[in-house]
Structure formats: C-alpha cells, structure tokens
Amino acid sequence: MTLIAPSILSADFGRLAEEVKHAEQAGADMIHIDVMDGCFVPNITIGPLIVEAVKKATMLPLDVHLMIIQPEKYIEDFVKAGADILTVHVEACPHLHRTVWQIKESGIRVGVSLNPATSLSSIEEIIHDIDLILIMSVNPGFGGQKFIPSTLDKINRAKKMILSNKLQTVIEVDGGVKLENAKKIVQAGADILVMGSAFFKQKDYKKFMKQLRKELYG
Ligand code: DX5
Ligand code: ZN
Predict the structure, then answer these.
(1) 153 assigned ligand-binding residue
(2) Which ligand has the minimum distance to the alpha carbon of residue 9?
(3) Which candidate, 126, 127, 47, 119, places its Cα nearest to that of 80?
(4) How many CB atoms lie within 10 A of CB 76?
(5) Which of 29, 107, 159, 215 has the fewest Cβ atoms surrounding its Cβ within 10 A?
(6) CA 97 – ligand 1 centroid, Å
(7) Helix (H, G, I), strand (E, B) or coil at 42
(8) Which residues span the domain enclosing 192?
(9) Catalytic residue at 129?
C-alpha cells in the first residue's frame, strides 16, 4: 500500500496542531516536515522546536526532511524533538556514510534525498545502509511547484536498483505530487507520496484522502 505523507509546509501555521490532527483523522500515514536553512535552499522554515510541538499533536510518525547544510550538527536535536525518520541530502553531505550512520546509531530510520539533477549513482555505495530514498521531483525550497516529468524514469531506475540488490529500501517522492499524477508516480515505483499544497489546500482532508485512495486503487 502507498503511504501518504502530508507536508506541513502548506498547512496553516497559526493552527498547526489542529492541522496535523485533522491530517491524522483523515487517514494520513505520516507527517512530512520540511526543515530549510536559507543556505542549502533559498527559504527558511522549521527547527527542532516546531518538530517537538508537532510530535505532541499526533501519534503519526514524523518524517523530517532536512534541507540544510551540515545536518550532522543537528541530528541529536531532531531525534530528541521526536523525528522518526531523518532524511539528509546527498548534496549537503561530503561524508554521507558518516552522517547516515550517525542517524542509524541514534535509533531512528534514515533517508537520503537527491535533488532533480543528482544522479542515482551518488547513492550506489550507501544504498545498503539506508531505509529510504527521497527523490525530489522539484528543486527543493518551496511548496506548490510543478512536478518534473523526467523524475518518473528516475523513480523507475531507483526501484530497479533496490530490487537488483534485494533490498527493502522504500522510495519516497516529494514535490508537485497531485491527485492527477499520483497513480503514475506509484506505478513508477514510489512507496510514499509527499503532498504539500495538494493536501493542505483542500477544504475537506477526509474527502481528499478518499479520492486519492480511489485514484490509486480504483
Ligand atoms: C519542497 C519540499 C516539499 C514541499 C512539497 O522543497 O521538500 O516537501 O512541501 O510541496 P508540494 O507538494 O506543494 O510540491
Ligand atoms: Zn520535503
């Protein structure tokens, strides 16, 4: 089954706890939290304090996407704040193996993310060590951008890489995922769909989740 991870980047921050609770009640599988530092990406968002607040508002796993340079400095803080999955960008980690193991040794799941222009070969040597590959289908930094079509082929190749290595690694896709393209993305090999604007711009989250399940499973 495909898991749905609403990204709170498009939620109403003034009512964040309520928004997260509503997403949970609507049947979301995890909460995606976008951490941006204004350096790795041209936007500044959330830190460990907000992660801690979200943790108190929901039982769902927190999927924390670090779009920051030197993520190794903040791993402990995000683990303490309640992250269940911590994902770092390959482009931000010169010592990716060390960073990945630092996260694993803290007892939570680890993901590695690739920007649209980053080749899958950059994770070839680390794929056995990671739980999740986060494939960016937009250039990270903002919600509401358009899905880059060539990502579909990249997802497909990532799936083949996982299968040929007989691994359980899951593929998460982030950026421009909508009701209209969700099925294609899943058919290409995605296990988790991040949805920011497509989810939080809805009036009725429950109704949207129903439509989405119908779109995916008929
Ligand atoms: C983009 C973030 C995404 C963002 C997706 O840099 O990593 O998680 O919230 O937003 P949508 O679904 O609106 O493209
Ligand atoms: Zn994200």
Answers:
(1) no
(2) 1
(3) 47
(4) 12
(5) 107
(6) 26
(7) coil
(8) 3-217
(9) no
The one catalytic residue in 29, 34, 63, 131 is 34
Band the pLDDT of 43: cuts 50, 70, 90. Answer: very high
* Ligand 1 atom with the shortest distance to the CA of 8: 9
Helices 48-57 and 16-25 pack at an angle, to 10 degrees, of 50
CATH number at residue 63: 3.20.20.70
8 A C-beta contact, residue 51 and residue 74:
no
Domain count, the chain: 1
Tell me the CA–centroid distance for residue 165 and ligand 2, in Å.
Answer: 26
Range 197-208 average pLDDT: 98
| Centroid of ligand 1 to alpha carbon of 196 (angstroms) | 5
Q: What is the distance between the alpha carbons of residues 99 and 82, in angstroms, rounded to a whole number?
A: 18
Write out the two tokens for 88.
């770092």
Question: Helix, strand, or coil here: 145?
Answer: coil
Looking only at the bridges linking them, the beta strands covering 3-6 and 85-89 are unpaired
What are the tens digits of pLDDT across the range 116-131?
Answer: 999 999 999 999 999 9
Identity of the amino acid at 204: D
With a CB cutoff of 8 Å and minimum separation 6, the contacts of 190 are: 2, 135, 155, 171, 172, 173
The label of the residue with tokens 């607040």 reads 53
Q: What is the pLDDT of residue 62?
A: 99
Task: Write out the two tokens for 208.
Answer: 């949207």
The amino acid at residue 25 is: Q
Per the annotation, the verdict on 63 as an active-site residue is no
- Across the range 69-81, mean pLDDT stands at 98
Active-site position among 37, 63, 174, 191: 174
Token readout for 97 is 């193996």
